[in-house]
Amino acid sequence: MRDPAERLGPRAVTLWTVAAGLLWAPILLGLVVWAVLLATVATRPLWAPLLILVPIALVAAAVHVLVVPRWRYAVHRWEVSDTAVYTRTGWFDQERRIAPLNRVQTVDTERGPLERALGLATVTVTTASSAGAVRIAALDLETADRVVARVTEAAARSRGDAT
């Protein structure tokens, strides 16, 4: 089986970078608040836990914000052929999914606040598979609309029972 041919748009990296930054912001802010409270309120501050946690959190945040989005972009692929929707996702544990078009039950477009701000969308192709839906995340909105139209048309043409 060959890999899916299509890459996500470069704004996917921006989406994943911003999402990771929003995840780490309250954690890092909490560490700053903890340090300020230790420095201003505690009579005998215990700095050791903070001195251990801050470097670990900074390294983890830097990797999650700077490395992971680019790595995800490098490995995520998708494709819609005349017979199926193919995806490859994951950066440590990679997963390949194939949804035959004659088994498609629904095709959905989803856009969260960050995706809307960046002009992106996630397309979800649902089949009767127990493994769940096939998701193509962080597509440019125009591409997502084309994918939905193509999958919908192809599924309507197929003679499968979608069960």
TrEMBL record:
Pfam families: bPH_2. This is PH domain-containing protein. Keywords: Membrane, Transmembrane, Transmembrane helix. The chain crosses the membrane at residues 12-40, 46-68. It comes from Rhodococcoides kroppenstedtii. Residues 74-149 form the YdbS-like PH domain. The keyword tRNA processing does not apply. The keyword Transmembrane helix applies. PANTHER family: TRANSMEMBRANE PROTEIN-RELATED (PTHR34473:SF3), UPF0699 TRANSMEMBRANE PROTEIN YDBS (PTHR34473).
